[in-house]
Structures are given as structure tokens and as C-alpha cells.
């Protein structure tokens, strides 16, 4: 008996919306249809387990086929199947509250997941690529008759007798002219590899050629022959569905290579497995992050019941954990709602907090279990840990015990250990403990040596995030400041009550300042004459700590710091009035000789800072040779 009717969607705008607003994500149609087939298959298996279906399950493989000549794609399953009445119930009624709301809410939609899931449009995503869709189905119920359904992309459908003779459903897509790219084998394989690689039911896509052993030749060597076998594209039991005690290191490393074939082996990993108060499984890997800050992002894959959803997991995973790799699978994450709702969702917050805690616990465990091995990994994980310390207060509180600081001697210290190390000698007259740091050990060597002469310790802070980490530490550590070792002369970095007497008269100091200002002739450099140790350099060029730090933060994307990044560089030139070279300049025969000596001393200071380049460097070398 043939039957015609109208799909209950309350508007004729539904198909133009599907085709227009979801077009950029049109490959999702295959994910949705295959997922539906898997659901139907799992349900019949469950009914059989419960004794509510007594028939033979048979082969439950979901099959995807295409016919380029007929321009069709077919997804077939041996699942529950449907009666004609069930088709009316599940296919013909798209449940949403009013066409006007739908059109308004999604007229500028970019996220196909949101539209498809929220309004039950999984099946209807087929019309993103098809002019006509046909269903051939046979229900598992005893005595059920096969049924068919066809729709040409309008709101009209037709239900009639079907041709299927075995339990299950075929969904046949008649691909439109704009979507013929999906009639290529490599394209369909690519989509299946992306979305269905770990589905819990075998998915077959045609066949593939494999070499199998075929006896031995006369010399006793193995012979091989090529055979056609089913192309099963998925692993139905990926490691995150298993218990950790079923797995070994080789299993985790093998899975990592499946996900990221061209990556180095990870440092270590965390197996997530919780079922209360939310469901979450997965494996998170710690890659060798080093300084490739942006390149590492978007490497966590989000699944829902083994169906791949996205690799953009922001809001579900804490920001700093975006540097990790791996898989998260949870049916409790609302995938089909707006981001603002996602951020406020209770389960998402719990999952976010849980993952943060698990990561912190793992790092703490590694640190306590084998500190030496942990220190050896620090260059690879330091960036990640510091990022976490900055962005998550809860992580900071846990991370204080396993965050390390490294000094120029290559020694490592926890935050508490380092405070104890330097507090006595590096506390200034205002009772502030000063941590000195270098961002480029080789370029700042002269300043490091000057600090070391005073028994000051110098930290190495050379990662892309360290300018922000330094700022964060100052806000957290009590009575502690951090100064770059070349931000001032060693005498002034940590100011004590005792200082050096000025050997120059006021008149001599004024004269020295004038000589250097004339020799430098550049307003970028402000000259000051200071009373320093005779053992310090005659001239030191520095940039103010605050200004330098703001510029560093601006370069690495510090919020609100772009203003400082646009300011021209400015430097302080500290003249050591107590150095013999300054006395020599004052006693020079004439102003020309004074200027020549002052310029040479100034260029030496620039050379120590790595600021002497190009023609200025060439001229300096020529002058130096001339003085020999």
C-alpha cells in the first residue's frame, strides 16, 4: 500500500537551511548516517543480551558503498530496522519549537554539530549532498513487512512496501551535482578515517588488497599472494575503552603513533577513566613541547561514544592543557549547544576540574618518584607547566611543589628551595628578595659574571612564556621581585645600604656626562654617571626592567601589552665614575681624544649587550685595530 504525506516540520525552509548553512561542514552527513547505523546495531545486540530478541544476530558489520555511475552512496546495517509506523515516527517528525525560531537562531550558523544535534537532524544531513534519499528497511519484529521511504528534498515523502529481505536498514543517497566529490573512493575513505576510525561496530568500506603467505618455494623461502579482503576501517576497541591494567607501554605508544604518525614519542601519559559524577574516558599524552608553543595546539580529539566530534576542545579542556595530545570521550559533554552554554554547563566544569587534577597528580607523582628523571624532562615539559601555573589558580597551588627553576649552572630548584637558597644574600635594603634571571645566557654573559662576582645566583628564563611567568610569580611570591640580569649594573640590581664613594668631583661628573652624550649622539641612550666598584665595567648599557618586560610580554601576545611593544627602545648608559678608563678619558689631551675613548668604551658596552651590529660593529673593529 502506497502512502504519501507531508513531513511535520512546520516550514518549507528546512532543506534550504540544511544545504546552505551546513554546507561548509557537509562531510558530516557520513558521520551521522554511519553513527545511526552503529546505534541501530548496538540496540539489536542489547536486545539479544536481554533476551528480547531471539533471532540470529548474524553479521553486524555496517557497510558503506558507493556507485559512481548511479551517483549513489549507501549505508547499510543489520540493526533494529523500522516498520512503516516507526518511519513515520522517527523520520517524518523533526521536533523543534517553531520555524521562525529555527531560522532566526541559525541563519548565520557555522557549527553544523550544533544544528544537527539540537534539532535531531542527523538523518536529514543527508540532504546536504543528496537530491533524493531512499530508505529500505525491515524491522526485527516478528512478522514485520519491509518498508521504503523516499524524499526528494522537499517536504513531501512517500512510504511504501520495501525490498529488503533481512533485518536492518539501507540508506541510499542520490548525490547531487554539487557534491560529486563524495563519489570518489579516497574522499569517502578520508571521511571514514576521520570520524569512524574507532566506532564500536565494524565498518566496512569495500575491499582492499593484502599479501598473505602462500607456502614455500623450492628453496624453502616463503611465497606470498595478493588477496582481496574486507576493508574494515575501524578499531572497535581502542585503548581508552580498556582498563589500564590490560595495557602496557607498547600499547600506549602504538596508539599514539596511530594518532600522530610523524611525532616523536611522548614523554608520558594519563589514562582517564571515571563514571561518576560524569562519564569520561580517554588518554592524554605529554608531548615534547619545548618552544613550539602554537604548533602543538588542537591535538586533543574529542569523541562521544567513540564517534569523533572535533579536535577543538577549548572550554572542555583547560586552556593550558591544549598543549597535550590524545583522546577524550564523554557522552556527558553537550556537543550541540552554543559555546556560552557549554562554558556554563555543570558537567563541563567538573570534567575540566577533573582533568586539571589528574594532570597535576601525575606530575607530582613523577616528581616524587624520580626527581632526577623529572629534571631531565623539564626542558620538554617546563613550558606546559608554567602555562598551567599562569592560567589556572588551582593548578598553581598544586604545581608549586613540582615547578622547577633552573639557574645558569644547570641546577634545579623548587620554588621553596630557591627562596631558601638566595634569600640571605639577595635581599635588598627594602627587605625584597631579588631573583635575577637571564633570557640569553651567551649574550648576557658579561652581566651574569658581574652578578656571580657578588655571589648572586642567576636563573635561566628563556622560554616564550617566561615573561608572563615572571610577572605571575611576582604576584604570587611574598616580598619577591624578579630582575633581568642586564636591566641594570650589578650594584644597582640588588641595592644594599653600603655603596661605593664617588671618586669624581661634581664638575668631573658633569664633564664625563657631556663627553659621552656628545660621543654617543643618540637620544635613545640616556647617560648617568654612577659610583660603582672599580672592578665593574667602565660603561654598562641597560634597559629598564619594567619596560623590557612589557616589551617581551607584548612580543609573546600579552593582553594589553601591545602599547609597550610599539614604543621605541630606550636604554640607560651607566658610566662607572670609579673606573680607571673614565680617569683616562678625563686626562686625555683634547676633546677629540676624549670623544674617541668614550665612543670606544660605549661600543664595548653595546657589544656586551649584543646591540652592536652592522656598520657600527665594523667601525668598532677598525678603531680597535688602530689602537694596537
Automatic annotation (TrEMBL):
ATP binds at residues 32, 36, 77, 82, 97-98, 169, 339. One of its GO terms (molecular function) is unfolded protein binding. It comes from the Bacteria. The keyword Cell wall biogenesis/degradation does not apply. The keyword Translocase does not apply. Keywords: ATP-binding, Chaperone, Cytoplasm, Nucleotide-binding, Stress response. InterPro entries: HATPase_C_sf, HSP90_C, Hsp90_fam, Hsp90_N, Ribosomal_Su5_D2-typ_SF. Belongs to the heat shock protein 90 family. This is Chaperone protein HtpG. It comes from Lunatimonas lonarensis.
